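Bug: token stream looks shifted between consecutive jobs. Job 1:
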Amino acid sequence: MADQSKTGAPNIFPCLRYENAPRAIEWLNKAFGFEKQFVVPGENNAVAHAQLRLGAGMIMMGSGGKPDPKNPWATEHFGTYVVVPDIDVHYTRAKAAGAKIERPLANTEYGSREYSVRDCDGHLWSFGTYDPYAES
């Protein structure tokens, strides 16, 4: 993974969950001009993951799901994903600062190494090595 701080590529991505993600994708295109980079279909007309671009910016989004104590992203409506160059160092730093770990550092089936935490006001963040721009 390239270090975005050196390439100038964005490394912070808003993440949204929608009750009807397929409809939201169409609406975001019609109303705001977001274009599909790619969409991963889920079960029952759901969207497991999608990336939508507007200019140089991008959002990640998908359908809301059933509560899963191992994955806060299943039901959270908004959060932020940040690509970092050394995820292991970053995780150690967050733990030492007292961040509430929601999903411990682990490798994913889609090739990332990441973790999820809540900040001091309870907002959901994920940090990892997955770079949505690599899919461009």
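Job 2, same session, no restart:
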Amino acid sequence: MVGEGPYLDEMKLRLEGCPVTFTGYLDGEELSSCYASSDVFVFPSATDTFGNVVLEAQASGLPVIVTDCGGPCENLIKDTTGLIVEAGNSDALSRAIVRLADHPELLQYMKKSARTYTEQRSFDAEFLKTWTMYEDLSKRSAMQ
């Protein structure tokens, strides 16, 4: 488990005795190594507004599993670069993880798709999409 957050202590308690390593916060080469040695990126946050780590994971060729709340679910292509599960539903989250573990061909497809997807994204392109959206809204408001 990479990172820290409000549930870290609870996770450590619940997973005591399990084969889990808690790395804490990582960046740079250490973080890149974790991405490179992973198969799936699971980000169950229901409050994150953007989820830049979701894009980082996909850029590293990892399929992502996110919840249906917040911005991270907008940073993937559902069933192509990752899976979206109901927020707070641990059974759905577990099923999504098992689905990828049980279907290596799907996992490989999503890994390749995730990398390709993020290669096509850029800050400039995202800014232009947002700018166009506001421009269109402004034009519609002026017409009313």
